[in-house]
Design brief:
With 127 residues, the chain is mainly alpha-helical. It has five helices and no strands.
Length: 127
C-alpha cells in the first residue's frame, strides 16, 4: 500500500483532512474486524483486508483532495482532474454546483461501502 495515500493533503479551510481521517478510521475498523488471530493464514488475510481498505478509500480520498483545491462554486477548476480520476465509471459524476458537492461530500456512506467490499471477500476467517 502506498504510504503517501494515508496522508491527506487538503486545503484546511474545508476540514476535509479531518473528515477523510474519520472515514479512514471507519473503513479500517470494518476491514479488520473479526479476524481470528490464531489463523494459519493471518498474514494473507490482513494483506487482503488492507488491499480492500485501499480499494474503498483511494478514489474517495483522492477525489476529496482534488475537490478541496477549489471552492464549491469553482467546479470548473477541478473538473478535468476529477474526471480523469473517475475515468469511465458511470456511477459517479463530477459535481458541478454547491448542491452536488454537498451531496457528494455528505451522501457517502463509508461504512456501507466498506461492508459491501468485505462481504465480497466472503468475510474470510471471521470469528
Amino acid at each position: 500500500m502506498d504510504s503517501k495515500f494515508l496522508c491527506d493533503v487538503a486545503i484546511t479551510d474545508q476540514g476535509q483532512g479531518g473528515a477523510q481521517s474519520v472515514e479512514d478510521g471507519a473503513a479500517i475498523s470494518i476491514m479488520l474486524q473479526n479476524i481470528k488471530s490464531e489463523s494459519q493464514q493471518l498474514d494473507q488475510i490482513i494483506e487482503q483486508r488492507l488491499e480492500a481498505f485501499e480499494a474503498v478509500r483511494r478514489q474517495r480520498a483522492s477525489l476529496m483532495q482534488i475537490f478541496s483545491n477549489a471552492g464549491q462554486d469553482e467546479a470548473e477548476k477541478v473538473r478535468d482532474e476529477a474526471a480523469r480520476l473517475l475515468g469511465s465509471k458511470e456511477t459517479l459524476k463530477v459535481p458541478t454546483n454547491q448542491t452536488e458537492f454537498h451531496d457528494f461530500n455528505f451522501g457517502y456512506d463509508v461504512m456501507a461501502e466498506s461492508d459491501k467490499v468485505l462481504q465480497s471477500l466472503g468475510r474470510v476467517e471471521i470469528a
